[in-house]
Amino acid sequence: MLQPVLVVMCDIRRGRDRRFASGSHARSRQSVRPRLGIAERQVVVEFTQHTPDEMFRYGNMAPEWSPAEAVPGALQ
Length: 76
What we know:
The chain contains 2 helices and 4 strands; from the N terminus they run βααβββ. By secondary structure, it is α+β, with helices and mostly antiparallel strands. The strands form 2 sheets. Strands 1-2 form a two-stranded parallel sheet. It has a two-stranded antiparallel ribbon with strand order 3-4. The protein is elongated and about 45 Å long.
């Protein structure tokens, strides 16, 4: 049987920790799902990792990610 789903697509720089993906999925479930009245199993989050030369932001090519960018406690 067909049913609607919510698809959240995230393009991220290569090298991001898997916890980043898990945290983003959890936030999507908590904030969006109740507003739309859909079941948790109807939420799909897709992540595509890109190299910096595939991402452009703030007027420049994105820099390579480094662990120094991590914000302590941000993924919890």
